[in-house]
Amino acid sequence: SCTDSPVTLKILQNWVPRVSHYFDKEHYTYVGHQIVIQESIEHFGAVVWPGALALSQYLESNQEQFNLKDKKVLEIGAGTGLVSIVACILGAYVTATDLPEVLENLSYNISRNTQNVNMHKPEVRKLVWGEGLDEDFPVSTYHYDFILATDVVYHHAALDPLLATMAYFCKPGTVLLWANKFRFSTDYEFLEKLCNIFNTTILAEFPESNVKLLKATVREN
Length: 221
Prior knowledge:
With about 220 residues, the protein is α/β, with parallel strands linked by helices. It has a single domain, classed as Vaccinia Virus protein VP39 (Rossmann fold, 3-Layer(aba) Sandwich). About 25% of the residues lie in helices and about 25% in strands. The chain has an eight-stranded mixed beta sheet with strand order 1-9-10-8-7-4-5-6, with helices on both faces. Strands 2-3 form a two-stranded antiparallel sheet. Helix 1 packs parallel to helix 2 (about 80-90) and helix 2 (about 80-90) runs parallel beside helix 3. It is globular and about 45 Å long. The two termini are about 15 Å apart.
């Protein structure tokens, strides 16, 4: 149920302040790797949101519970790519997806931060929530162990397509990890819908950042 007692955590300030001529680059350290993220001010999806920091930190700290090594991982709404980069460093086969206008910056960050990492090469693909899933990601070929999503719920109209996308990819055996900042009634409404469809547990809360991290799995009848 959604009433479990989650662990209470704090997002650690583990980005490295840099004196840089580029105001749009952030330096982070996860799993012993320095990660440099280029943000873009034009697009929502191209800024590092707190949910991405929360999930990156949680994956780093809970590698035994969620072992990503050699697992197939899909990130939806990957944004700047931070979470996908961390998943790749943790040894996953990563597919990072987002809207077409975000892909250039996403690809740049992912290739730049994983080129010297001796892991599976991540893939970057277009995925518009709820559109063309059968054609682009046919069930017969694509099965994921983990679906990752951070800060995908905010004031926008695509919540039903987002839920449909989560339901499409969440097969028996798949674990959905979703971290989000909870601010609006729409955030809680989405959570309620998620709880109606999936077995849902709140794994962690980051009260200072208003972030909740949830695990969802498909209900097996």
